[in-house]
Amino acid sequence: MKKLNWVLVFLLMLAVACTSKEPPKTAAAKQTEAKPVAANNNPVPPAAIAQNDEVEFQNTDLQVLLPPYIQLKDALVQGNTLQAKRATLALKEGIRVLPAMKQLEPVLSGILQTADIEQQRNRFAIFSEQLIGKIEQKGLKKGKIYIAHCPMAMNDKGAYWITQKKEIQNPYFGSAMLNCGSIDKTIE
């Protein structure tokens, strides 16, 4: 019986040791970690660090906005208001360090001020339209993005969004009408 207890203790210790990924960092180690900064010495938003290798914009300001925009779209597809707010915060941070994009900020503030998914989606439609206009104006250096359209969104007025995939995942209706819409335009 004692031998069985020792074997169980050993197996338990082995299991715990094998599942720990890395030791916790000390406060000093966390403070000395390098944080990326933009050319103007402002911190780069975390979502902007994970740049998409496939798409490169003529205007590098737009490059910073695409990853958090896609995160916001995906959060709305899932109906996740908290994730939508997190992605919106990253977008606002990206806009904060890009003075040429400041006029897009008020719509994002509206997304942050509500926990209602429909209101977030309505403001996303406005932001998408504005961002699409900027992208169409400036263009891409490489890669492609798609402009998708749902004719039933916004009380049958229709609404657009940016996507990197041809597969439709509708941010305006989420799971209720996930595949409602079509690719309206390809920007290359």
Helices and strands in order:
Layout: H1 2-19, H2 27-32, H3 46-49, E1 56-57, H4 60-78, H5 81-96, H6 105-112, H7 117-138, E2 140-142, E3 145-150, H8 153-156, E4 159-163, E5 182-187
Antiparallel strand pairs: 1-2, 3-4, 3-5
Helix pairs in contact: 4-5, 4-7, 5-6, 6-7
Polypeptide structure, described:
This protein is mostly helical. The chain has one domain. 52% of the residues lie in helices and 12% in strands. It is built from eight helices and five strands. The strands form two sheets. A three-stranded antiparallel sheet has the order 4-3-5. The chain has a two-stranded antiparallel ribbon with strand order 1-2. The chain is globular, with a radius of gyration of 22 Å. The N and C termini lie far apart (71 Å).
* Measured distance between first and last alpha carbons: 71 Å
* Approximate helicity band: 40-55%
Helix tally equals: 8
The radius of gyration computed from the alpha-carbon positions, rounded to a whole number of angstroms, is 22 Å
The low-confidence runs, each spanning 5 or more residues with pLDDT under 50, are 4-52
Task: Summarize the main sheet.
Answer: 3 strands, antiparallel
Shape: globular
Features:
188 residues, three-stranded antiparallel sheet, mainly alpha, two-stranded antiparallel sheet, globular, 52% helix
